[in-house]
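Open question from group meeting: does this chain pack into something compact, or does most of it stay loose? Before anyone orders reagents, we agreed to write out a predicted structure and look at it together. Recording both the input and the output here so the notebook holds the full record.
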Amino acid sequence: MDVYGLIGNPVEHSLSPPMHEAAYEELGLDARYVTLEPAEDAGAAAVESAATLGVAGLNVTIPFKQAVLDAVELDPLAERIGAVNTVDLTGEEPRGYNTDAVGAVRALKHHDAAVEGDAVVVGAGGAGRAVAFGLADEGMDVAVANRTVETAESLAEEVPGATGHGLDALPDLLAGADVLVNCTSVGMEEDRSPVPADALHGNLAVLDAVYAPVKTRLLRDAETAGARTVDGAWMLLFQGVEAFEIWTGQEAPVAAMNDALRDGLKQH
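Structure tokens returned:
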């Protein structure tokens, strides 16, 4: 039996176990997915211990995405992003990946959004970094808008061709944009959007990385404006899909994983 898992602190509310277990069942794989909650200063040690125990792969979540960097050989994209959320333990050395970037891109493409032209990424934290790199690697011209302008400008210096801005620039940035991705937590705890509703338009594809609630104020405003909308659960799904494919070398059963994820969200 192959064992995969998630390390984080806390992990009790993670939706990854049912999503991955559904994939194993769908494909008839002899595998299990477990959650591990090391002490907050034990991220790198947890990866080493998992490898010793024969665990085949790990997802990595808060607060360990940076802590495990020194414990793995980095995939080039993960190295540029500066964070790891997936580790493959089947090789001679643990190899670290970041599937946040791919998760966003695949979520957009799954909804037939053209990942080309101009993109606006709201937020310059961990998710914003990953998405900005992912969209730039697709050839998009990326504008990062953040509450602290200096943080946006700092990220933009690292992302090829990107520019950094404050949130007050959003109306101008969005006027000619093709893709908008919200990578902040705005909309999670209260019913508000990080983007002025009147700045949205029908030529946009809008992805909100917030997945609880599934339909945020931003997405409702985007629907009203006639934009193509993609909820954050799709990004979460394709992060997991990418990890599954890295670990197993098999095409993931997306529909089965999505059903399990949506069922889990209903119970949260």
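Observations to bring back to the group:
The CA atoms of residues 3 and 54 lie 8 Å apart.
The longest helix spans residues 232-248.
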